[in-house]
Inverse folding.
DNA sequence: AATATATTTGAGCAGCGCTCATTTTTAGTG
DNA sequence: CACTAAAAATGAGCGCTGCTCAAATATATT
């Protein structure tokens, strides 16, 4: 086979692959992973069932290919945010918005991702899949870590933060938050919701946090100060 | 049938039901929901497959029964914590520990719970299941809300907190945190990990939090300190 | 046109969730 | 105890699933 024809035939194959991925993505998103049969996927992609298994060794691997795409989008946006010049608070807000919007668009996928992420099968193939996903996840969270690290360097964030805990709160809160959002059905005000979630986190990690100055606390500090000042005054007089 | 015999026969039936639930719980936990066939469940429970469907109209309902148990445990512990006399910080810590320990023990279940929680099928039965789960979830989160509300009343927490956001961070962080814990494999120091997670939340919601910032406050505190220290020094010399 | 290679196909397999006619067990009665 | 009616348990069988593989078809090379 010549180089040119090899190229065209490989291109043809890749097109087929993409068609199958596309069909599967839509079906998984609309009907869920387990509710979508490989026969339906084949039909939607306009090929026979055997062809699907010709391109993907099993249904799980097909899903993994979809998740790869999914992570690619998440990661590239995250890295864009990191490259742009903006303050740490805005970076976190944008990252959170992107994350929530992506997992919102396809929660069936997220769910399955979580399952794969957990999978501790002895099966070598699924093991490969999961470690690949771990790598994706690591690359993604590395973006988050970079934002935090830079934030500390800039003096926006407190030094000595427990990065893992903050990360768990950030992504976990978003994921859980999506579920409550999904139930109360208001998909439009994602932006508002995200800032409601980011706000408490920001409050606990930023140096500049405008402390909403709870009256009770203000009063207490005020009292304590006055008392010390008064004591100092009397002491100074005595001496 | 007399009342007595009815009672014994019903007791017998309930025992069978519990045996099936027990077998299914173990299998789901060890092999996952989709990887466990109803035939295997029947075999493990020592009955025929038909009997399983005699007690539970389908595999999903069997799972729902298991989740019901699971939530029962979570809720009763949460309500115990609420009844005991202790400060808000400790309450949150205990609630978080209980939550993490429970979902740790059976993450396959948690995963499926999430899926059911999402389910928006038109099927009336699954609809019943999901609304029942929503009710359980609401009862559980009500305990969390009570802790927050009481905390505000006591003056431990800032008034005007966004309860939903805090709740999402709390439970979402725990769930996500469990996954990272599961991967890094250190199931013993749950307690430590929980406090690492609770700490940032506490920092952002409590009134007593040592606020590390606000120049105005810092300056004033600094001045007061210096003044007291100076006074102390002179005092020490005089004596 | 002939041949070699790559791709596609769908009948078939074992296993799935679930049903239901049939059998077995249990409880109540004279 | 035998007899009966109701309750519980059974497993063959149905339509479906994910997946395989020998055969058929399409493509590239000579």
């Amino acid at each position: 086979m010549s180089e040119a024809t090899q190229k065209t035939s490989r291109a043809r194959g890749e097109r087929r692959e993409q068609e199958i991925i596309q069909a599967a993505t839509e079906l998984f998103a609309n009907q869920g992973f387990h509710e979508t049969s490989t026969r339906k996927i084949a039909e939607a992609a306009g090929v026979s069932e055997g062809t699907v298994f010709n391109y993907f060794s099993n249904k799980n691997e097909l899903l993994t290919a979809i998740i790869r795409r999914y992570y690619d989008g998440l990661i590239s946006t995250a890295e864009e945010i990191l490259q742009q010049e903006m303050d740490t608070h805005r970076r976190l807000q944008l990252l959170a918005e992107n994350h929530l919007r992506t997992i919102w668009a396809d929660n069936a996928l997220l769910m399955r991702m979580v399952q794969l992420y957990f999978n501790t099968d002895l099966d070598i193939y699924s093991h490969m899949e999961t470690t690949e996903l771990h790598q994706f996840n690591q690359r993604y969270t590395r973006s988050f870590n970079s934002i935090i690290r830079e934030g500390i360097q800039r003096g926006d964030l407190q030094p000595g933060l427990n990065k893992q805990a903050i990360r768990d709160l950030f992504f976990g809160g978003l994921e859980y938050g999506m579920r409550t959002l999904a139930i109360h059905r208001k998909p439009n005000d994602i932006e508002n919701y995200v800032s409601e979630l980011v706000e408490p986190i920001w409050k606990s990690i930023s140096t500049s946090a405008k402390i909403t100055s709870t009256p009770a606390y203000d009063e207490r500090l005020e009292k304590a100060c006055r008392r010390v000042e008064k004591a100092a005054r009397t002491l100074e007089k005595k001496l």
Notes: Chain A touches chain B through 53 residues (CB under 8 Å). Confidence is low (pLDDT under 50) at residues 1-6, 120-125 of chain A. The radius of gyration of chain A is 26 Å. The CA atoms of residues 44 and 209 of chain A lie 52 Å apart.
